[in-house]
Amino acid sequence: MLTVENLTISFRTDEGRVTPVQDVGFSLAEGRTLGIVGESGSGKSVSTKALMRLLPGNAEIGAQARMRYTAKSGEEIAIEALKPNARALRHLRGGEIGMIFQEPMASFSPVYTIGNQIMETIRLHRGLKGQAARDLAVEMLTKVGISNPDARVDQYPHELSGGMRQRAMIALALSAGPRLLIADEPTTALDVTIQAQVLDLMRDLQRDLAMGMIFITHDLGVIAHIADDVAVMYLGTIVETGTAREVLKSPAHPYTRGLIKAIPRADRLDARLEAVPGDIPSPSARPSGCPFHPRCAEAIAGLCDRATPPEVTLGVGRRVRCHLHETRAVA
Amino acid sequence: MARFLIDRLFGMVVTLFLVSIMVFVIMELPPGDYAERYAFRKYSGTGVTMTETDVQAIRVELGLDAPAITRYLDWIGGIVLRGDFGPAYAFDTSVNNIISGKVWLTLGLLFATLIVTYLVSIPVGIYAAVRRGGFADYGLTVFSYLGLALPNFLLALVMLYFANRWFGASIGGLFSAPYADAPWSAAKFWDLVKHLWLPAAVLAWSAMAYQIQTVRATMSDELGKLSVIAARARGVPEGRLLLKYPARLAINPVVSTIGFDVNRIFSELPIVAVVLGLTELGDLLLKSYLDLDMNVAGAILLLLTVVIVVMNFVSDLLLAWLDPRIRLGG
Amino acid sequence: MTDTPQTRPETAAERRERRQRERYYSASQWTLIWWRFRRHRAAMAAACVLGLMVFLGLFAEFFAPYGTTERNRDYLSGPPQIPKFCDDNGCSLRPFVHGTRTERDPVTLRAVAMPDPETRRHVHFFVEGQPARLLGVIPIETRLFGLQDGARLHLWGTDQMGRDVFSRTLYATRTSLSIGVAGVLISFVLALVIGGAAGYFGGMVDNVIQRMTEVVRVIPVIPLYMGLAAAMPKDWSSTQVYFAMTIILGLFGWPTLARRIRSQLLSIRGEDYVLAAELAGARPARVIATHMLPSFTSFIIVDLVISFPYMILSETALSFVGLGLRPPSVSWGVMLQQAQSVQAIEQAPWLFIPAVFVVLAVLAFTVLGDGLRDAADPYSEAR
Q: I want to staple B26 with a disulfide (CB 3.0 to 4.6 A). Which of B112, B141, C227, C267 is the partner?
C-alpha cells in the first residue's frame, strides 16, 4: 500500500545544506507493521514527516524521490507531487494516514478539550456534526480504553495522566479513520508499565482495524513486540531491512548487532550491557564512505572510509548495506 | 477559580492601599502648604498683608494643622466612603467638580487607544510571524524600533506639522469649536469619535510597536510547536489551523500585559495632551502640578492608578478565561 | 573507538582551522561576547553613534562655537547657514556663508534675518571664541570652527532668542546623556540592593519587596515623576534641579532590573557553590557580590543599556512640559520646549533638530542593547 523510493531530504541552513536523509527506500504491505529503528538523529522521524509533507519550509525533497500510496478508494497517490494545502493533501493527512507523536502533551493544544480536537477531526474527515460527532468521539475514547469517556471528552489535556493522554492521542489519530498509522516513538515518554499497555493497545487496534502501521523507535525490544518487518536506519540511510524475526535473530549489519547487544535482557542480568561505541555524528559532518565506519569494530581500512557500500540482497525482502557482505559475496 | 479570584482581589486591595499612601506622600511633598498658597493666591496684589497668624488661622480652618496620619485618613476616608476627593484650592471649587466631566472622556480615550493598539498589533504580529524573514517582517522590525525611539509626543508634533502642511487644518483637540462647551448630544458624541482617532493613534504608537514584537515572537514560537504540526497532520486547513492553534495562544502575552499598556498610555497622556490640546485628565494633571494644586493632582494620580490596577485584574480574568491551564490549575 | 587510520599530514588550511578552533575553545566568556558582538553590524554602528555623541558632548566647549546663553540679537529665529563653496558670484576654495541683514516681514511685520548674497563670510578652523573651561578645568579660547571679525556662524540656525541651535544641541547632548547615566547608575544600585535582598533572603523579605515593587510598577511613571518634579522648590538653582532630576529618574527605574536580579538569584540560590560559600562563613553581601552576581553580569549590563532610553525619554518629556530641567540648563527636552506648537515648528523647523538627537540616541541604545543581548546569550549561536 506504500512504496518509498530514493527519498532524499535536505535542509537549507545558515551553515549550508544538511542532508539528514539520503536515498531511503522501503515498502509496506496492507495490514502489516514496519518498524523503523535508529538512534536519535538517524533521520527516521524526518522520513515519515516527508510522507505527510510535514517538513518545514527550508526542507527539500530530492527530485528522484517517489512516494506511492494506495488510497482507500484504490487510487494511487503520488505524495511527492501533491500541491501544498490542496484538498487531496488534506484528505491524505488524517483521512488516509494518521500520525501519533512522541509527546502526547505537546501534540494536543492545551487550550481546547480533548473532545474538541477529536470532533474537529471527525468533522473534517467523516462529515459528522454535533451530537453524532460527539458520540463517535466518545466511542473512540472507549475503544482506546479510556475509562469514563463521557466525562473525559470534556477535559483538557493537562487533566489527564501521561498514559491516558497517549491513548487519547491514538483515539484522535484513529477518529479520522486512517488506513495507515505512523507512530513516532509513541511510548518513549511513558513509564515502562504503561508503555507495554499502550503497545498492546496499538497492536490490537491495528489488527481490528486492519491498518498498516509504521512504528518508529530506537528500542529494538519494542520492535520485537510489535513489528512484522524492520528497517534499521543509521545517519539517514537504511542499513538493513528484513522481517523482524530474521533481523533480530541473525543481524547482518554490525550496527544492528551493536543495537541488539545493547538491549537489557532478563536472562543475562550479570552480563554488562554493551553500548554501540561513540556518538552519532551530526548530519552536517557525515563521514566519508560508509557512514558507520568510524564506530565500526569490523571496518576495513581503505575500503569502508572511502566507498559507500552498495545494497546487498541476502534473501527475499532482506537487504543490507555493508562492505562485509559484499566481500563475502565476492569471496 | 474562586480561590484565584479571592487571591487576586485581596492583592488588589493591598496594592491600592499602598498606592494611596504613596500618592498622599507625593501630595505632601511640595514645600509650604495649602494655607500659604491659598493665602498667597487670595490676597497677593490686594494690598492686604498676611501675617503668619493669619496663615495659621487659615490652616486651622482648613484642618491642615492636624498630623499627617489624621489628614491621610480624612482624605482616603472621604474618597472611599463618600467618593469625595476634597477641595481644589487653585480652582476654587471641589475636586469632584473639576474631574467628574473628564473621567469618561479619559476612559473613552483609553479604550479607543487600546482598541487601536490591539486591532493593529495582533493581526500584524501574526502576519509577520507567518511570513517570517519576508519583506513585511523586515519593515515591521524597523517600525517597531522607531516605535520605541520616537516618543509619542514628538510623533504628535510631526503629525500635526504634516497635517498642517498638507491639509492646512488643525487636527488637534477632542471637539470642534461649536461642540466644546455644548451639552452632550448624539452630534457631540459623533464629533468626539471623529476627533478621537488621532490622539488614539498617537497614544497607541509605542504600545503598538511593543505588542507587535510580542505577538510576533510568541506566534513564531507557537508555529513550531508540536501541537501545530499534529493538527496539520490531521488535515486541518491551513488558515483555520493558524487561527485556532498558534494564534489563539499568541494573544495570551498581549492579554497578560493589558495593565502595562494602560500604564504606558496613561504615562504618555499628559505630555501628548499638551501637544494635541486634549482636555482630559492628563492635561488637568499637568496643570494642577504646575499650579501645585496637589488635591487635584493626587486625585487624578490615584484615579489613573486605580484604572491600571483594575485593568490588571481584568487581564488576569481574561487570561484565566482564555487559558484553561490557569483556570483549572489555580 | 576505532580512529580512522589516517596519517596524512594536515594541510595549512586545516591547521589554520584547528588553531582557530583552539583559540575559540580557550577564549574567556568576555572575549566570546566581544567576538559575537563584533559580528553584529547594526550594534557596532549604534555604538559608534553613541561614542560620537559622548565625544561631542564631552568636549562641547571646543566643538560648539558659542555658549548656551550667548545671543545673536541680529539673527533671531534665523535659518541654518550651510557653508558652501560656490554661489552666483563664483567659487572659493574656503567654504563660506552669506552675511545677514535684517528685514521686516511684509505681512507679519516681524523682524526677519535674511541672508545677504552679496557678502561672504569665510569659515575658519580653530578660531578665537569666548573663554571657557574644557571638562570644567582646562581653560580654552579656541573653537573648532567659526567666523572671524565677530561675525557668527549658525550651522543649525538660531532660536527665538537668537541662541545658536548647534552649540546648544551639543551642550544638551551632554546634559541629557549624563542624566541618563546618573539615573541608570542610581537605579542600578537600588535594583542591586532591593533585588539582591529579595532574591537572596526569599520568604518574607521577598514578599514585602514584591509588594513594594508592584506598587511602583502600577503607578504610571511619567505622572509619578511629574509629581516629584513639581515638588522641587521654585527657587532651586539649576544645578540643584539637575541633581534632583537624576535622583527622581533613578528612584523609580529599578523594578525591571530588580526583578531580573531577584529571579536570577533565586534560580542559583540552591547551587552547591553558594551553599559552600555560606558554610565557609561568608556574609550575605559577599556571597551575592562575589559568588552569585558574576554568573549573570552580562545580563545586567544588557539590562542597563536597555534602560537608558527610558531615562532619556523621561527626562525629555518632563523638561518638554516644563517640569524637568529649567533654563539656563539646556537639555534636549528643554530645547524642545520651544517647539511645542505647530506654529513654532512651521516658522522654525530647525528647532526640531534636538528631537532627531533624542530619536537617534534612543534608537542607538536599543540596537546596542539588542546586539549585546545576542552576544551575551550563549544560545544565540545555536539558532
A: C227
